[in-house]
Amino acid sequence: MDAGIKRGEMTMEQYTECIFKKTASLFEISAMIGARIAIPGDEKKIEKFGRFGYEFGMAYQIVDDLLEDFGVYKDKESGILSDSLFSIYMRSMDADSASKKTIGVAEAHLIRAKEELADIKDSHAKEKLFALIDYVDGLMDSVRFASSED
After folding, report:
1. Which of 5, 21, 29, 93 could lock 97 by a disulfide, CB 3.0 to 4.6 Å apart?
2. pLDDT tens, position by position, 3-52
3. Which of 106-135 are b and which e, b meaning 16 or more Cβ less than 10 Å from the residue's Cβ?
Protein backbone atom coordinates (compact mmCIF):
# COMPACT_ATOMS: atom_id res chain seq x y z
CA MET A 1 0.00 0.00 0.00
CA ASP A 2 2.69 2.52 0.96
CA ALA A 3 4.76 1.62 -2.10
CA GLY A 4 1.74 2.27 -4.33
CA ILE A 5 1.14 5.83 -3.15
CA LYS A 6 3.61 8.47 -4.26
CA ARG A 7 5.42 10.30 -1.46
CA GLY A 8 3.56 13.46 -0.63
CA GLU A 9 0.17 12.08 -1.62
CA MET A 10 -0.69 9.74 1.25
CA THR A 11 -3.50 10.94 3.50
CA MET A 12 -3.53 10.57 7.27
CA GLU A 13 -6.23 7.90 6.95
CA GLN A 14 -4.17 5.95 4.42
CA TYR A 15 -1.06 6.20 6.61
CA THR A 16 -2.97 4.94 9.65
CA GLU A 17 -4.45 2.06 7.65
CA CYS A 18 -1.05 1.23 6.18
CA ILE A 19 0.80 1.03 9.50
CA PHE A 20 -2.04 -0.96 11.01
CA LYS A 21 -1.88 -3.48 8.17
CA LYS A 22 1.91 -3.80 8.05
CA THR A 23 2.82 -3.61 11.73
CA ALA A 24 0.11 -3.07 14.34
CA SER A 25 -2.04 -5.98 13.20
CA LEU A 26 0.95 -8.32 13.50
CA PHE A 27 1.71 -7.07 17.02
CA GLU A 28 -1.97 -7.26 17.94
CA ILE A 29 -2.47 -10.86 16.86
CA SER A 30 0.88 -11.93 18.31
CA ALA A 31 -0.04 -10.50 21.71
CA MET A 32 -3.43 -12.18 21.56
CA ILE A 33 -1.94 -15.55 20.63
CA GLY A 34 0.53 -15.29 23.50
CA ALA A 35 -2.25 -14.37 25.91
CA ARG A 36 -4.48 -17.15 24.61
CA ILE A 37 -1.71 -19.65 25.37
CA ALA A 38 -0.86 -18.15 28.78
CA ILE A 39 -4.40 -17.49 29.99
CA PRO A 40 -6.78 -19.65 27.92
CA GLY A 41 -10.43 -18.74 28.26
CA ASP A 42 -9.91 -15.29 29.75
CA GLU A 43 -11.30 -13.37 26.77
CA LYS A 44 -11.23 -9.97 28.50
CA LYS A 45 -7.52 -10.24 29.21
CA ILE A 46 -6.83 -11.66 25.76
CA GLU A 47 -8.58 -8.60 24.28
CA LYS A 48 -6.50 -6.32 26.53
CA PHE A 49 -3.32 -7.91 25.21
CA GLY A 50 -4.63 -7.44 21.69
CA ARG A 51 -5.22 -3.74 22.34
CA PHE A 52 -1.75 -3.54 23.90
CA GLY A 53 -0.29 -5.06 20.73
CA TYR A 54 -2.24 -2.67 18.52
CA GLU A 55 -1.15 0.44 20.45
CA PHE A 56 2.44 -0.74 20.73
CA GLY A 57 2.57 -1.68 17.04
CA MET A 58 1.20 1.70 15.95
CA ALA A 59 3.78 3.50 18.11
CA TYR A 60 6.59 1.26 16.93
CA GLN A 61 5.90 1.94 13.25
CA ILE A 62 5.51 5.70 13.77
CA VAL A 63 8.84 5.77 15.62
CA ASP A 64 10.54 3.56 13.05
CA ASP A 65 9.39 5.88 10.25
CA LEU A 66 10.42 8.97 12.22
CA LEU A 67 13.91 7.65 12.84
CA GLU A 68 14.25 6.83 9.17
CA ASP A 69 13.16 10.40 8.28
CA PHE A 70 15.79 11.81 10.65
CA GLY A 71 18.55 9.61 9.25
CA VAL A 72 19.06 7.71 12.49
CA TYR A 73 19.07 4.44 10.53
CA LYS A 74 22.09 4.60 8.25
CA ASP A 75 21.91 1.08 6.84
CA LYS A 76 18.15 0.65 6.61
CA GLU A 77 17.30 1.50 3.05
CA SER A 78 14.33 -0.27 1.55
CA GLY A 79 14.63 1.70 -1.68
CA ILE A 80 11.08 2.93 -1.20
CA LEU A 81 10.62 6.40 0.21
CA SER A 82 7.04 6.41 1.44
CA ASP A 83 5.19 8.90 3.55
CA SER A 84 5.44 8.92 7.31
CA LEU A 85 3.42 10.69 9.94
CA PHE A 86 6.23 13.26 10.14
CA SER A 87 6.20 13.87 6.38
CA ILE A 88 2.41 14.25 6.41
CA TYR A 89 2.65 16.83 9.22
CA MET A 90 5.46 18.59 7.34
CA ARG A 91 2.96 19.56 4.65
CA SER A 92 1.30 21.99 7.03
CA MET A 93 3.93 22.93 9.64
CA ASP A 94 7.65 23.42 10.21
CA ALA A 95 9.97 20.48 10.94
CA ASP A 96 10.24 21.18 14.67
CA SER A 97 6.47 21.30 15.09
CA ALA A 98 6.01 18.23 12.89
CA SER A 99 8.56 16.21 14.88
CA LYS A 100 7.01 17.23 18.19
CA LYS A 101 3.52 16.37 17.00
CA THR A 102 4.72 13.00 15.64
CA ILE A 103 6.45 12.23 18.95
CA GLY A 104 3.26 13.19 20.78
CA VAL A 105 1.19 10.74 18.75
CA ALA A 106 3.70 7.93 19.31
CA GLU A 107 3.85 8.72 23.05
CA ALA A 108 0.05 8.61 23.26
CA HIS A 109 0.03 5.12 21.70
CA LEU A 110 2.73 3.99 24.16
CA ILE A 111 0.75 5.37 27.11
CA ARG A 112 -2.36 3.54 25.95
CA ALA A 113 -0.31 0.35 25.53
CA LYS A 114 0.82 0.61 29.17
CA GLU A 115 -2.72 1.37 30.31
CA GLU A 116 -3.98 -1.84 28.69
CA LEU A 117 -1.63 -3.82 30.93
CA ALA A 118 -2.17 -1.77 34.09
CA ASP A 119 -4.48 -4.27 35.77
CA ILE A 120 -2.56 -7.34 34.61
CA LYS A 121 -0.85 -9.06 37.51
CA ASP A 122 2.80 -8.02 37.92
CA SER A 123 5.19 -10.58 36.52
CA HIS A 124 8.52 -10.92 34.75
CA ALA A 125 6.65 -11.07 31.42
CA LYS A 126 4.79 -7.83 32.16
CA GLU A 127 8.09 -6.16 33.10
CA LYS A 128 9.52 -7.18 29.72
CA LEU A 129 6.55 -5.71 27.87
CA PHE A 130 6.93 -2.44 29.81
CA ALA A 131 10.67 -2.50 29.01
CA LEU A 132 9.80 -2.78 25.31
CA ILE A 133 7.54 0.26 25.62
CA ASP A 134 10.30 2.19 27.40
CA TYR A 135 12.82 1.12 24.75
CA VAL A 136 10.68 2.42 21.89
CA ASP A 137 10.04 5.61 23.84
CA GLY A 138 13.80 6.02 24.33
CA LEU A 139 14.42 5.61 20.61
CA MET A 140 12.77 8.98 20.12
CA ASP A 141 15.38 10.75 22.27
CA SER A 142 17.63 11.50 19.30
CA VAL A 143 14.74 13.33 17.65
CA ARG A 144 13.57 14.94 20.91
CA PHE A 145 17.05 16.31 21.60
CA ALA A 146 17.53 17.43 17.99
CA SER A 147 14.26 19.37 18.23
CA SER A 148 15.13 20.99 21.56
CA GLU A 149 18.61 22.09 20.40
CA ASP A 150 17.25 24.34 17.64
Report:
1. 93
2. 667 778 899 999 999 999 999 999 999 999 999 999 999 999 999 999 99
3. bbebbebbbebbeebeeeeeeeebeeebee
